[in-house]
Amino acid sequence: MANSRVVRRRGADGRIPVRTLDRGASSSAAAAEPTGYPGGPYDTSLLVKYEHHVARHIWFGEERGPKKELKVAGHGLKLTSRVPLALPPQMESWVSRSGLASLQRTSLNKIDTNLVSAFVERWHLETSSFHMPFGEMSITLDDVACLLHLPIRGIFWSPQDVTEELAVELAVDYLGVSQGQAQSHVRSCRGSYYKLEWLYDIFVHHRAASSWAYATRAYLLMLVGSTIFADKTFTLVEARYLLLFRDLDGYSGYSWGAAALVTLYRYLGDASMYSCKQLGGYPTLLQCWIHEYFPTVGKEGRIGILLETVVFPER
């Protein structure tokens, strides 16, 4: 009796859409052979976007670009120069009640882009988890609370999108800039954004003028725009986040930890796609989570220490 064998044929995209048989093979053998991607999932009913996942392209030797790793938005060094050692008492009370004070000292000055890229390649947006050889893992709210000391209980409110016209109005009403200055700046950003450097200049100006409410809003917006709400542009923050700081006496009940985690999840999902070249969100959270659960990975692997004391050696 002639031996039957299965002939595997890949499509142009590397996927194995069907299984065909040599003459003499039984149809049951074809049914037993799963379809899917080589080196990836055979059952694609859950990971429906795997065709565009960076892992699929890496399997065939296709890197993201010449540098291979992602561009990562890390603002640790900038914050070192922009965050004062002590705020005026009038501002300190608002910042303390906000629940965001810990972000002033938790950013890493150096991000290991190779390490971060390696983990992003294992992230799948359909499951919101890293697919490891031993199973799935994910960053939890408890991790955020322990690593960043941000509140994870309270109001979860996602600010609405704003138009360029509304971004101008918000800057005039809550940042204390002129109509012309706000219009010129928003126009230069080509969208409903503010530049982090511009916000820092506003903070310095209003602090010198003792305009404490304006100075505090500019400072807090710059702070979250450089950390938990960092944009992939590395220089801008979405104007809609200013809505969170309209009432400086009534915004202390937000679940900042949940907002930080959702933002990072969203950017991890984007970065897991082959076409994406940048990672937004707070890379300090991701890298410290990696070192917490994989302490032997990388030269900087440490465990059981506070973020405020982390000083990574220069390579």
Task: Give the overall form.
Answer: globular
**Which strand order do you get reading across the main beta sheet?**
4-5-6
Spell out the helices and strands N to C.
EEHHEHHHEEEHHHEHHEHEH
Straight-line N-to-C gap: 64 Å
Give an overview in words.
InterPro entries: AminoTfrase-like_pln_mobile, MAIN-like. This is Aminotransferase-like plant mobile domain-containing protein. The chain is mostly helical. Helices cover about 40% and strands about 10% of the residues. Helix 7 (about 165-175) crosses helix 8. The longest helix is centred in the C-terminal third of the chain and has 16 residues, at about 255-270. The radius of gyration is 24 Å and the shape is globular.
Topology:
Blueprint: E1 6-8, E2 19-21, H1 27-32, H2 54-59, E3 71-72, H3 76-82, H4 89-98, H5 113-120, E4 123-124, E5 129-132, E6 135-137, H6 141-148, H7 164-175, H8 179-189, E7 193-195, H9 196-208, H10 212-226, E8 236-238, H11 256-271, E9 278-279, H12 283-293
Parallel strand pairs: 3-9
Antiparallel strand pairs: 1-2, 4-5, 5-6, 7-8
Helix pairs in contact: 4-10, 6-11, 7-8, 9-10
Which features characterize this protein?
disordered C terminus; mainly alpha; three-stranded antiparallel beta sheet; 8% strand
In short:
This protein has 315 residues and is mainly α.
